[in-house]
Amino acid sequence: MRINCAQCLRPEVQCLCAYLPRLESRWQVLILRHSSEAKHALNTARLAVLGLKQCRLMDGEVFAQLPALLAEPGWQNWLLFPAASAQLVEQGVASEAGQRQRLIVLDGSWRKAKRLLHCNPCLAALPRLSFASPPPSRYRLRKVPTAEALSTIEAITYALEQLEGRSFQSLLAPFEALIEQQISAMGSKRYQADFAARNAHLDA
Predict the structure, then answer these.
(1) Domain for residue 104, yes or no?
(2) For the chain, which has fewer Cβ within 10 Å, the N-terminal or C-terminal residue?
(3) What's the rounded Cα separation, in Å, for the pair 168 and 135?
(4) Which residue intervals define the domain DTW in the entry (predicted)?
């Protein structure tokens, strides 16, 4: 019987807790994770929650409590999701004195993220943030259409670095360890056949 770590939920022999930081941030991060992603072996949302003190995770598809949460006084909410009207994180945001900032992140495939947006109309009214020039994703076990398609924890890390002007790279340490574990488990031959060519810029 496989025993999992109670915190990171990985098998005990692959526990990632030693890699987890506990970072403070001025921004609060709220991750809305599509319910189908919760048991995905490579889902990174939980790692973000464990590594970032001001981070909260909600699972589901329709979030009944979300309108009340977004209406809490003293908060400016931003949705991290592409749109023609989106403000670029690289440019930062202005806030009024005493106002706290919250970043809403949708966790799932693009199809599932769009589903979350459709099922929760209160999200459509939020101002959006997007990336102008994010770094290439280091998610070497995922086939994506472009290198700019970041995993959830990578997107949060990059957004916070731009918005707060400091490094959050230690947040990626358990993510990097997770990827290395999975590559080791699948074996070099399979990795080379399935993923290595499209990730040559990362493995060099």
Answers:
(1) yes
(2) N
(3) 14
(4) 1-187
